[in-house]
């Protein structure tokens, strides 16, 4: 899911682009979104699967990506669970992955921090996003400098940094600069707790292209080479739908679904996830948002858990505000694993 920053209009609807023929994607790449104020300006567009016109001015929403470590016996997984490639992650059974694009105004990170503290046996991968990426400065502002350590101090948190890739059309050097900026954070801040330990490569492609496989391989190698992103050096790509198999080994985790609940049900009916059947469950993530009232959460968790180990479930459509649905998802997840 893409969002726009105050400084740059980057409203890219990745998910929806994925299903469009190449010539159509450019037109969908830039959606203007009203920003509220400086750091809050961004919007999340409707994701893939949707064929209807995008609501360009959609207010950003929160997607909480909950990653369920698929060992859940209660979840009848089609694929065998495998241990995560990140050692620090593999020890915890329940996992969530949360697109957390919220500016750290006073109190705004508290709901997440409370959840993290309340559920120490749940692993939280938290995607932070200062400015549609790390921003152009060496370091983000003071609010981030004090907030990030409040996340990273928890052993059950893996914080990773958001980087847009525009389906591989963004200049490789620009993406590399963003990755290097994140990697330099602990050095620039002279504080090891001011760090992310991996990168979320948003707007990944799904159709095969040797050139694009090379592009994302280069990025993954860079991420894995950086001490400042270690020790996990966790690589996540987000095509939003099942991508060509060639992309799967490049990442530690691939987001194979990012769309609203109705689209998720449609995808299941269409047998969309057969494409990833056989892929290690622990290397897949799903993000379902816009979940309506009345959906039976354990049933939904079982459905999502069948597809991927890492899941996000939200009942809003924005990553810019805390999605209260996660306060229900995490305890339910703990019950299931
Ligand atoms: C690093 O930052 C954290 C949070 O702001 C602070 O508590 C800690 O003292 C800092 N460490 C150093 C070495 O400055
Ligand atoms: C995945 O493959 C297995 C065996 O190859 C099959 O039994 C199972 O039904 C498949 N699952 C889906 C969702 O296609
Ligand atoms: C989401 O869930 C929370 C908690 O269950 C509820 O208070 C809120 O109204 C829901 N929001 C939407 C948009 O459904």
UniProtKB/TrEMBL annotation:
The residues forming the signal peptide are: 1-26
A Pfam short name: Spherulin4
Identify the keywords attached in UniProt to this record, alphabetized. Signal
Indicate what this protein is called per its UniProt record: Spherulin 4-like cell surface protein
Source organism per UniProt? Aspergillus homomorphus (strain CBS 101889)
